Amino acid sequence: MTLSPEATAPADEVVLEAIGLTKHFPVRRKLRDLFRREHEAVHAVDDVHLTLRRGRVVALVGESGSGKSTVARLLAQLHPRTGGDIRLHGESTGVKRGRQFRAYVRRVQMIFQDPFASLNPVHTIRYHLTRSLRIHGNAGKSAAELERALADLLTRVSLTPPERYLDKFPHELSGGQRQRVAIARALGANPEALLADEPVSMLDVSIRLGVLNLLRDLKERLDLAILYITHDIASARYFADETLVMYAGRMVEGGDSESVTQSPAHPYTRLLIDSAPDPDRLHSLRPDAADRGNGEPPSLIRPPAGCRFHPRCPAAMPRCTTDLPVRLEIGDAPGHWAACWLYDRKEGTR
Ligand SMILES: Nc1ncnc2c1ncn2[C@@H]1O[C@H](COP(=O)(O)OP(=O)(O)OP(=O)(O)O)[C@@H](O)[C@H]1O
Ligand SMILES: [Mg+2]
User: Fold this and answer.
1) What tens digit of pLDDT does each residue of 256-314 get?
2) Is the residue at 6 inside a domain?
3) What is the CATH number of the domain that holds 253?
């Protein structure tokens, strides 16, 4: 099995793109709702744009319920979308079953938060990895080739010597080792993109860095495009090339990780950073700019009009309650933007 991508593919090539991605989950209706005209829905994800490139990590950061996992599940084709498009190498894709779905999954693999739940406790590591290699056609033609492919996978995730791990059950491994097996299983597909939904948040703090370093090593050696979902904006700075911040189903800020984490522009990003202290930080909230609201994210069934963050925003202006902010350039680094009216130069409010 060859795990390296074709030598002809340029680095930074766009692998997967979300364009105006939107997901509304219908709310289960009660009998009296049958007579209502409008149908309620959870506005979990609205108009999300993101681009995953070969050999690059994009972090998607936001608090609980902001829609991060929904974005990952949409990109993995586990949910049908309400609107927008998902393009794999420029080609529009939709949720399909059968062969086309398998072909998509081979190229775009997902890693979940809880490695214990994602591995079957009654099967050995050998079973999990063999199954992945077989399903995706990477098991080779003979028992010896399969054995080599299994050893390759475990070596890739630094579980060596492989024979020490192959015949173990998930409960015989540590949390970090289990997550490494889950990553090896994803690599069994020889994917181009990895969607990692909080891959280290269930792990002990002391082993998180090891797993992030492993993902970084895979990104570099296999030229993988990685979406890294996290609550922890400090780890985004360390691990991701680009950081996107999501609030209540919408993207509020994006740019290279250094700019977004060291010079945050959106009041929500500042709030996030303030709640995760970082001694190197250059910017912080002014003392008078404390969280105005009760600190609760808004209802996604009837999200606030205008900017969804305005009820909590220390800098909210009248137009923030009515007008949906557009992406505005911040100007300190190329590609750094915020969806915030504070940065509307036409208004002269900056
Ligand atoms: N299958 C579903 N049906 C209905 N609502 C859903 C479904 N999945 C998610 N939601 C809702 O969509 C919103 C976003 O959820 P999501 O799981 O994407 O958030 P998240 O940012 O991943 O949160 P966390 O950090 O807690 O994992 C939430 O309000 C959630 O209740
Ligand atoms: Mg989640």
Assistant:
1) 999 999 999 999 999 999 886 555 544 444 444 444 445 677 889 989 999 999 999 99
2) no
3) 3.40.50.300
Residue 330 has pLDDT above 70, yes or no: yes
Closest CA to 108 of 179, 48, 54: 54
CA of 254 from ligand 2 middle (Å) equals 19
Residue nearest to atom 1 of ligand 1 (CA): 25
Distances (CA, A) of 4 to 9, 187, 188: 11, 11, 12
- How far does the centroid of ligand 1 lie from the alpha carbon of residue 65, in Å? 5
Q: Which amino acids bring their CB within 6 angstroms of ligand 1?
A: 25, 42, 44, 62, 64-70, 231, 300
Question: Per the domain annotation, does 288 fall within a domain?
Answer: no
pLDDT in tens, 240-269: 999 999 999 999 999 999 999 999 999 999
Residue 7 lies in a domain: no
Count up the domains in the chain and report the number: 1
- Proximal ligand: closest to the CA of 74: 1
* Structural domain for 50, as ranges: 13-28+39-279+298-343
Instruction: Count Cβ atoms below 10 Å from residue 232 Cβ, excluding itself.
Output: 17
